[in-house]
Amino acid sequence: MVDSPKVGKRILPSLTESQIDTLINGADNLRDRCIVSLLADSGIRLSELTSIKIKDIDWDSYTLTIIGKGNKQRRAPFTDQTAGLLKAYLSGNGHHRVNIWGINWNGVQKMLRTLGYKTGIKCNAHSFRRGFACNLHRKGLSTLDIMHLGGWSELSMVLRYTAQITFDDCLKHYKALQ
After folding, report:
1. Domain 17-177: assigned CATH number
2. Which of 44, 138, 135 is nearest to 34 (CA)?
3. 68, HSE (Cβ side, Cα atoms, 13 Å)
4. Which residue ranges make up each domain of the chain?
């Protein structure tokens, strides 16, 4: 019996904080800035993003209650910056029947593709999820914390998402502990 050839494992790109800022600033309107900021802050999946309703937002804890993969309910965090964008957006919009955005997953993908062409930063909803994990890791959060915040059920998935973290990134954390 012949062993099958080994297929190389690609390290998929994630978005840096600088790239995320460029994407937010390059968005054409408040809704799109809000979507980009929320994807970056929370690491939510596209399907989770497009099912958000006003009742799912907890303004006290800056979290969303969402139905994730496998029909599991979970909470996802967002920052003060995203809260400000969300409040501004919802004060004039956000009363759509399907979700607060008024567009479906295909509309979000098209918006991100257009934004990517405009800014020169290739992005899709999942690149924000990888960026969420990598950026939290760079800030020193533990893999376990990232797993819980991102809604992964296994640490191995977080390790896969943070595969692009380099020795130099880890060395910065090490030196900060000194």
Report:
1. 1.10.443.10
2. 44
3. 17
4. 17-177
